[in-house]
Amino acid sequence: MNNLLKKCIRFLSNRSLKMSLDTEWMRKLLSDKKFLVYGPKIVAIGGGTGLSTMLRGLKEYSANITAVVTVADDGGGSGVLRQDLGLLPPGDIRNCLLALANTEPIMEQLLQYRFQDGMLKGQSFGNLFIAAMNGISDNFVEAVRKMSDVLAVTGRVLPVTINDVRLVAELEDGFIVKGESNIGNHNSLHPGAIKRVFIEPSNAQPLDEVIESILEADAVILGPGSLFTSIIPNLLIKGVADAIKKSPAIKIYVCNIMTQPGETDGFNVLDHVRAVENHSFSGIVDYCIVNQSEIPEEFLEKYRQEGAEPVLLANDSDLIGTEVITDDYLSLFKGKIRHDAKKLSKAIMQLVAESVIARDKQRLLDYYFVKERL
User: Does a structural domain hold residue 346?
Assistant: First the structure.
């Protein structure tokens, strides 16, 4: 342990001294990225673009990040590899690895590259990379770990299970839709609201590391992402919801900015939270983060043509036991409505700092580190 850290600990241990974040030596200490290892333990659960976007912001505050990723995807390039090679779908895992990676832009471009012609048309090079890594590893989890090492990933990325699971939806009229890729598109075949989703087989087991990370977490984050096909499937894996319930972590749900056609048509914030509770347990959400910034009409019009609308807060008093946090978390890029990674991660880490770390006198260094970066 270097002299600077010893000096910091001596000062923090002496209650008679009042500290200022403006001292030069504290700033030097807290700006050093190697102290990210002392950061809060964050577990982010989900899949899709939303999860990877959020991870890019969170990695600036902690190296103790565990991304727990759904493996129910059966469409696109991931679905092809799943069908041809019996490989767990690598797409969401690839995106999370890249979000947490410390690598050159050219490497990210390479791994995200999709072939334009031939038999590999539409396939991502990153998916093939994971498939090849799986071929020289004992199992899929080891392959992901090896790729994490190659990309110098901050934290870790875990599939929620290594079992081959299929997502199934039951509509309000009892109609059954099988397969993750079919659920979002079911309105074209059989219109109707989703009543519930479930997995086959129902006894799929989570990774031990997933349960351990949840039980040890300071914060468990659900979302952002597709409600029924990215977030809830993780909660259906045996033991995951129970671990979240037992965990002393604060539980945060990041609500989507827009509804998703075929999944959450007409949903408000309360509907999202209730769907999460109905597939896990009542009171799973301590804090709900909701975007309240105005969306330009030209962006809204494009989404409305596809059947999407902004997710409205309605009456937040209906969210009993859940604190609603509203602000501007909006990012508009290339015609897409997304969460702003920096704004969202800042709001999350502010919550963690004040609601978790500040209450533990043994974690003053963690607290000052996070507050300095905020």
Answer: no
The answer to whether residue 131 sits within a structural domain is yes
Nearest to 197 by CA among 221, 226, 177: 177
Structural domain contains residue 311: no
Residue 147 belongs to domain spanning: 74-154
Q: How many residues are there in the chain?
A: 374
pLDDT tens for each residue of 291-332: 999 999 999 999 999 999 999 987 756 788 899 999 999 999
Closest alpha carbon to 211 in 250, 246, 254, 162: 246
Let me know if residue 13 belongs to a domain.
no
pTM > 0.85: yes or no: yes
Please state the domain count of the chain: 1
Tell me the H-state helices in the chain: 3-13, 24-30, 48-58, 76-85, 91-100, 105-112, 125-135, 140-150, 180-183, 208-215, 232-235, 240-246, 269-278, 297-305, 341-355, 364-373
Cis peptide before 233 (omega within 30 of 0): no
